[in-house]
Design a protein that fits this description.
By secondary structure, the chain is of the alpha/beta class. The strands form two sheets. Strands 1-2-5-4-3-6-7-8-17 form a nine-stranded mixed sheet, sandwiched between helices. It is globular.
């Protein structure tokens, strides 16, 4: 459906150059959601309090492409409070909370996002590039790729830098860098310890199970729960599923990741083996075709499949449809496929991120640290630019000092204290003369 057609339906709220959201009248509902998130994100609120006074982002435009959740709203509000002019799109067609999008549009954000914008996904991204932003904030690299492929001169000459939120996006960026086609510096926020070891493990673990339960209402205890991939995200899902009483099976290609799964009490199989015994399947690999035709054909009647990786390519849905004789939506975010052999398979959230498409994404408390890293990384880029300098065109690691600052600030907000090493202890650590 074209934008003029959307306007004609009366369902969409659209103002050229300013926003395109599902329904601007949802703004009050979205503000309440963000007010709740603010009460759970003390690190972000501390940053807002500090930088709303000095407004270091004044005169800078930021384009963001990241799930439009209540937590993302707190990041956007904080960037605005620090002086930035912000434009935003969702980084997945099914991860936008329409009420939050409406609230942010009402607060002056150039918001181009709505739940289910499959056909207009890249149209939304391009609308955030129209104002010529100085910085990009990405989750999955779709914004950065669009800037590099369709606006090459602009990427080379006008963009100061950017950030990337997720594992898949960082992989894409490193491939682009190796090919000599990364035209501005990008901080790998995903690789900060206060991101991957908390957001990916605890956030993905809890929110993935939340999405599965909302979409199915099934009992997890006693089920054979297959997790494809035992990296940061997959390990979090596996541990939470185990905690709910599931028998967890891991599929992996990396020996060290697999043995960690074994020592965490899980079983390790190939997907060919797991397909025959699994009750619930969740992909978390960042690789396409993890579950495909040969697996669908051997699955038990009633098997549930979903994905918590960034893209829906991990489950080969066209092959699922090729072996099915019928399909129906049996409940929200749950489609029943009846196979030619008579078995039924239930696909959740169209193979999109189950934790965002069927639930609310990561809890606010864990996004507090991830988004603090986003804010501070952009602050580093801006301060460098104000000094007439620029980082090299490369994927840049988050400074260790920033990582520790974010963790320390989070601990302080929880009223927890750290020990401090004495001068003698520091000398002991740093000396090569100390023996047994």
């Amino acid at each position: 459906m074209s934008i003029p057609q959307m306007k004609a339906t009366g369902i969409f709220s659209y103002e050229q150059g300013k926003y395109c959201v599902k329904d601007i009248s949802l703004a009050e509902e979205g503000k309440l959601l963000m007010d709740w998130a603010e009460s759970r994100m003390p690190v972000m609120m501390k940053l807002r309090e500090e930088y709303s006074k000095t407004k270091p982002f004044a005169g800078y435009k930021i384009a963001g492409c990241l799930h439009v959740t209540k937590e993302t709203g707190i990041l956007i509000r904080t960037l605005q409070a620090a002086g930035a002019e912000v434009y935003w799109s969702g980084c997945n067609p099914l991860s936008t909370n329409d009420a939050v999008a409406a609230a942010l549009a009402a607060e002056g954000v150039g918001m181009f996002a709505w739940y289910g914008n499959h056909d207009d996904f890249y149209w939304c991204i391009e609308r955030t590039i129209d104002p010529k932003p100085h910085l990009t904030l990405d989750d999955g690299c779709d914004l950065i790729n669009t800037v590099h492929e369709k606006y090459k001169d602009y990427a080379k000459n006008e963009v100061i830098g950017g950030t990337e939120e997720t594992t898949t996006g960082v992989h894409r960026l490193r491939s682009r860098q190796e090919a000599g086609e990364l035209y501005y510096p990008v901080f790998a926020v995903n690789d900060a310890e206060t991101k991957w070891d908390f957001d990916n493990v605890y956030g993905t673990g809890q929110s993935t199970l939340d999405g599965i339960i909302r979409a199915t209402s099934v009992l997890l205890a006693g089920k054979n729960f297959v997790v494809a991939g035992h990296g940061h995200c997959g390990s979090g899902v596996a541990l939470r599923a185990k905690g709910m009483g599931s028998n967890v099976i891991i599929t992996e290609v990396k020996p060290t990741a697999a043995i960690k799964g074994v020592l965490n009490g899980h079983e390790v199989m190939t997907m060919d083996e797991a397909a025959k015994v699994g009750d619930i399947f969740c992909t978390a690999t960042g690789v396409k075709d993890i579950i495909r035709k040969q697996h669908f054909e051997t699955m038990r009647d009633g098997a549930i499949i979903c994905n918590t990786g960034h893209y829906d390519a991990e489950i080969n849905i066209p092959e699922l449809e090729s072996v099915s004789v019928s399909k129906r939506t049996i409940r929200p975010n749950c489609e029943e496929y009846t196979l030619k052999n008579g078995n039924r398979i239930y696909l959740l959230a169209q193979g999109r991120l189950i934790n965002l498409a069927a639930a609310e994404g990561h809890p606010s408390e864990v996004m507090d640290m991830s988004f603090a890293n986003q804010f501070l990384a952009h602050l580093n880029l801006v301060m460098k630019h104000r000094n007439g300098e620029k980082y090299e065109n490369a994927v840049i690691e988050i400074p260790l000092e920033q990582d520790q600052f974010v963790a320390k600030t989070k601990l302080e907000s929880m009223k927890m204290n750290l020990d401090v090493l004495s001068a003698e202890q520091l000398s002991y650590i740093n000396s090569y003369n100390e023996g047994t």
